[in-house]
Amino acid sequence: MRNETNRGYAAANNQAVALARSSRLLFMNNDVELLAPLPLEHWLALAGEGIAGPAASSGNALGMPYVEGWTLCTTRAAMDHLRGWSEDYGAGYWDDVDLCTRAWLNGLPVSPLPNVGSYLRHLKNVTGGDGRLNMQEVHDRNLVRFAQNFCRWRRAGMPAQKPDHPLGAIEIHHAEQTAQGFLQRAQVDAAQAVFDYLAALPGERGAADIARSGTAPRFGINLIANFGSGVGLGVISRGIAGLLKSRGIPFSIFDVPHAWGTPQSDAQFAEHLVTHPDALGHPINLYVLPTVFFGNFFQNNPVFLARPRMHIANIWWEASRLPPQWTDMLSRFDGILAMSDFIADICRNSLAVTPTLYGEAPLDLPTNVRADRAEFGLPADAVVFVASLDPNSDPERKNPEALINAFRSAFSVADRQVRLVLRLNNAATGLGQAVVQRLLQLAAGDGRIGLLLEPMRYDQVLSLYACADIYLSLHRGEGLGLGMLESMALGKAVIATGWSGNLSFMNHSNSALLRYRLIPVAGSYDFFRPEMIGHDARWADPVLEDAVAWMRHLRHDRDARDALGARAKASAEDYRRKAYDGGWIKELEDLWLAQRHLPAVIEKLSYPARQAAQLPC
To answer: Model's pTM, two decimal places?
Structure first.
């Protein structure tokens, strides 16, 4: 079947349903590549009587089930019940949100499909992005259409909200954000029409009404984070929560699931966890998420912008500069919380009209850490070197091959009293498996080198560090370097590259810092490639000969090793005391109070579009 003109994805899908004979249906965009045979029976079983598709690519916290429509399984009965795809959206954007919303409101299940990326690659906007359409205009127009459709459904008698599902806030946000875009393009009449529409919504208060209410909220923080994840951001966010609790700061937590990592839990924060964003009642949103996440996080999760809030990003970065494409995005926040001097300097020299606050990362080690070498199969009398990394954080940056090369250069195979243990977090991913295979090749024939690949709890990871004598990090860049800080807190000597975020707590007195050569950034991810980050971006390549010399010295001189570990522990304790002073919290409160008399910035996420003075970024 071929149309003379491009009628859009939804219309073509409806035509296909009319012609199809099967009771089970699979919709797929024309810009999808097949990587492996599809488990269609399994996918269709997951869809059941409803809809199944890829989970939202940047996480979804809309307060309702939502899957992306570029690959979608369902049944003819479901499509008949929903009267097909809505053709209101023309070329695309928000048609899948519309379908999922109607399915949810009609009691049909909406389920994510697992591991879609193993079978399919979505190239995205191959048809729409060829220049014939202004996709930003299409997106903005369809935001309003979705809001209007939802309002129409409500007025027709469908429930506007179900328990724990704040769809009213989403409806407001969609229209308000589009209005802000109209204002930025000087389309005042269009913006005013949207604000008038918001004011007419029954039972809801638009953003301008909230801003005029005059209510002075109490200082408090909404922590929006990969809170339960088993990656570094989870450790950081739980540390921030512990700090807020110790300082008596009101806070709530919304856990945004991470794509990988063993989930962690902490019962002490149960009372602060909320199940949907509408329950986040404090005036400041603090986001502890991957920096790359912010590119379309608010587009996919507009509910976070539905109420007047101050938006602060706790960002992490590991190269000498930010990708130029990211600076505009990050400048939309009202402030940046940097937890290393390295990141703070980059942000202060890169972001417009965006204050950068600095605070030490609060680290709270669990109490059940124990140094039991038998648990990890390590000999009691060996000198053990340990390193820990997540290959998904970019193997070029983490530089794990250098660990094995340095170890094998430092110690001949005749030295059986040394061990190297590499713990790889999330090694089961595609990138992780490729790194594992390369490391196994480098370690082949050397039984002194071991890889730990199974998922581990946080206390187990720290127990591994406690069993070691020396922690190694031959990184090319770190935002902070949690493994180094944790090992120092346990009294371990640390050998590490003397560059980037770890210098917030390391120096030549408390650590064995390696000299380095600055080299062009060239990593595995797009944002670490010269084409995106810039050809002048740099990170550090450690001097391997320095690593070899330090490893030999600390292996043979126990007194030097113990003394270095003692100084490391004292420095880590001093760092922790500063972290739990929480000076950045008071500074954040003062910044929040100052916003009341400063002109608003139209590009900011917090911009109150009707009343703000315009101060361009």
So the answer is: 0.67
